[in-house]
Write a structure and sequence with these properties.
Blueprint (H helix, E strand, L loop, with lengths): L11 H17 L4 H8 L3 H8 L7 H11 L3 H5 L26 E3 L2 E5 L9 E8 L16 E8 L1 E6 L5 E4 L3 E5 L4 E4 L5 E8 L2 H6 L2
Antiparallel strand pairs: 1-2, 2-3, 3-9, 4-7, 4-9, 5-6, 5-8
Helix pairs in contact: 2-3, 2-4
């Protein structure tokens, strides 16, 4: 697999926010770059480059970093709220308008994280805009803890996994799979968007209930 250049550039503000939040959370946890890299399954140089705004992490790398730091992905993507931590909620609801959503070009996909205002959650819904047409564009499989559900909203995508034959999915088709299994999406169509829901690993979900 060969990695292609990302389509489009992430905004400097998005990259800077993620990088500064990553550094802040890592230092608050008393964790070195090497220790974080070990827990996330990344090279120490990758952590350094992300924190110094030299590269834009892909979505799976963002998930691995949030898991390794034991924080919500929202904590790394957005400015931390001021003041004391919010009390544990028992009946939460977040409404998010389309105008409030932000598309993040990163790696092989563009990502639009949804309802990021809801923190301490056990799943992450995201719109994934698939750009690659061939698995040759990828260096390696994408894998991270938890499970994923994907529903094709537009276009056609092909789900490739390391243990199953490729599966072609068209608008309205859905798939649920173990995200620790190597996987990736390609699309034979110019525009393909899926609703992707990542459920955190069981141990993290149990702690947040």
């Amino acid at each position: 697999m060969k990695r292609s250049e990302p389509g489009g550039a992430d905004t400097e503000s998005q990259k800077t926010t993620f990088s500064s939040n990553l550094l802040e959370v890592r230092l608050a946890a008393g964790m070195s770059q090497r220790a974080l890299a070990r827990r996330a399954g990344l090279a120490p140089s990758s952590i350094s480059k992300i924190e110094n705004v030299q590269v834009s992490p892909t979505y799976d790398v963002m998930l691995r970093l949030s898991e390794a730091l034991d924080v919500d992905l929202a904590r790394l993507l957005h400015e931390a709220p001021g003041g004391a931590s919010a009390p544990e909620a028992t009946a939460r609801l977040v409404v998010e308008r389309k105008s409030e959503q932000t598309r993040h070009p990163a790696g092989h996909y563009d990502y639009t994280p949804l309802t990021m205002a809801l923190v301490r959650r056990i799943m992450d819904p995201t719109l994934i805009h698939v750009r690659e047409t061939s698995i040759d564009a990828f260096d390696d499989w994408i894998r991270h803890p938890g499970e994923e559900f994907a529903l094709v909203l537009s276009g056609c995508v092909v789900l490739h996994t390391e243990h199953y034959a490729p599966v072609t999915l068209t608008q309205g088709d859905a798939v649920h799979y173990d995200a620790s299994m190597g996987h990736l999406f390609t699309s034979p169509t110019p525009v393909a968007t899926i609703l992707n829901i990542t459920a955190h690993a069981d141990d993290k979900a149990q702690r947040w209930r």
